[in-house]
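Everyone, carefully examine this protein record:
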Amino acid sequence: PSDNNSDVYEQITLPAIYTFVFIIGLGANVCGLKSLLQKWKSLGHINVFLLNLGIANFLLLPTLPFLTAYYFMKNKWIFGDAFCKITRFCFNLNLYGSIGFLTCISVNRYLAIVHPLKAKRRITVRTSVAISVMVWLLVSAQSLPDVLFPKNSPNRTEKCYHTTSNEYVEDYLKYSVGWTLTGFVMPFFIFLGCYGHVTLVLCRKNTINKVVKQRSLKLMFILILLFSVCYIPYHIFKNLSLYSRVLFSTNKKYPSWDKGVFCAHQISRGLVCLNSVLNPLVYLHVLDIPAQLQQLLQRFRQTFTRLFVSNYVSVPVAQTANRAIS
């Protein structure tokens, strides 16, 4: 459907969100990866998953200015069909690569807390690299069929659909449901299982350090936020929107709930890109950046006290001594 509300969501809201994500996400990911490389040796094998999470973010960010231009120009794609497919492919690699590596980080934290001895023996840097390669291969295999679907209508070649044209929407819905189950639902259940068990262990065991408990619960909160805000709405409304289009292709009429789902889907497309802004919170948390900032602030206070407060105190004393002499 195309009305004033849908135009607002697609041509104003999406470009605004993409611009925000590009600016903030670029800065946050550069800072995060710089800190990661500085502390590479001290982190252990989890740094491999964190690095790949950063790479997934950088696959999306360079494409956002082109998508912003597309929606800002009222859905007119001027960069060619090949680049349209590359842009959409990078979007999907970012989305499902992020989900994959966040799941790997969740399993890693689960093993470190629940089975620490097994984790030390079995999980090495080489194992982490092998798992990362498998994740990229699986994500690429899941995303590749999307490239094979047409991204524009035969009579409207300037379009760059994020799904496909109406002629192929029924087949695309079947593919999308399977993609959702393997690329999102399965990792999400693994995530829930890991952190459900971790929460039970943290609550029952008094031997676990309080700081470790707090850091684990904070990481769980960040990951729940990511899944709740970025991933769950996108997959629900994407498939509902596709189903609505399938109903239209058979009945020549959109269902009554289509307009609400369409608007929600446009918003969820913006929210899913926020994963590139929220993902750095994961590796900044693991790197313990807040603690580093706290140390820097403490040093600044000490320096400020030595330089200014001590000088301010010493000046009246010196003046009083001079008056006594005179």
